[in-house]
Amino acid sequence: MQPNNRILIVCNRVPFPLKDGGALAMYAMIKGLHNARYQVYVLAMNTTRHKVAATDLPTLFREIAGFEMVDFDNELRLLPLLKNYLFGHKPQHAERFYTKAFEQKLIDCIAKIQPDIIQLESIYLSEYEPAIRQATKAILIQRLHNIEAEIWQRLARETPHFLKRMYLKNLAKRISKYELAVWNEFDALITISKSDTVFINSRNSPTPLLTLPYGIDVSKPINDIIPEPIRAYHIGAMDWQPNVDAMEWMRDEIVPSICRLIPDFAFQFAGRNMPQSMLSYQSDSFCCVGEVDDAEAFMANKNILIVPLRSGSGIRVKTLEAMATQKVVISTDIGMQGIEAVDKVHFLKANSPQDFADALVWYSRHPEAMAQIAQNAFHLIQTQYNSLRLIQSYQEFVKELS
What we know:
The protein is an alpha/beta fold and 402 residues long. The chain folds into 2 domains: 226 residues, Rossmann fold (3-Layer(aba) Sandwich); 153 residues, Glycogen Phosphorylase B (Rossmann fold), CATH 3.40.50.2000. The protein is built from 15 helices and 13 strands. It has a 7-stranded parallel sheet with strand order 3-2-1-4-5-6-7, with helices on both faces. A 6-stranded parallel sheet has the order 10-9-8-11-12-13, with helices on both faces. The radius of gyration is 21 Å and the shape is globular.
């Protein structure tokens, strides 16, 4: 049995269904560690915002050493939000993910499991760090899916409403201060992108740090390249504000610019927790299909992923998956943040509506070059985002912490 074999992973939501980047990233980590013969235990909040029935869970959660989910009310309510804004110091997000009941459940799990490593899958779970320290001497790791403050800073810049912008700026400032403080409370940090690692290093955090991108199973069969006609799509959780902003920008400015050059352009987008207002977006050029039961089936006959993100942080799992199946990606700089990809080598960069239109015209006129870009992207996934190699890096990192 390898050292540090027992790992307790604490999730701020059940990592299922696999329809958004957060769930995919947590699930991939659990599966990778299980396949590497770790004894993996998972304690997950079954939140009101991402409620999952036990009967819907995949077999992986029955195969690992232990899995338990705890009902957790994390609904956003106006009165606590105002109270936090007027009198609080911590970000309201941190308060929403802390209860004494869940803290006690976590302590009970630690006593029963006696883990060698405890890994928290959200910065807001840091609220439980003091209690964990009192309960165990296990190595305590914080896995950062993104730099949270960056998300809210960018959202504030893109928000036209004055009062909302003021609130978002205040929230971003609190989150930034919170992140800087809690990074130093852990034995190690794991980031999903190199850009996040660079950011943390620039803040002089002394905590050992590992960059561990989302791992892709490169043994899966890949799709045949479909050069034409253009079938463009986007998929992502629509309870994440950057995705909502991206689709509104797509509807209002990007699609009209594209249609002036490509009149028969057609774009579809899907995602869980789709706002009711977006379900009415139904036209030949811009169509909302809502939440899909099978994301892979939705993407199968499409050849271009469009990522018009103007805010957000971390790494886009759906972008990596598109590259792994040899789809062409057209994205903003922010959309490709954290992915070691080069413009016109692995993807096409577009930061304005006209850029997106020009990229699609170029795509239609250079099918051989686009096929090469898709193949280059697939090779990048094979070499840099191979799940087996990444778990080996994790093992070496943990060994050094012992």
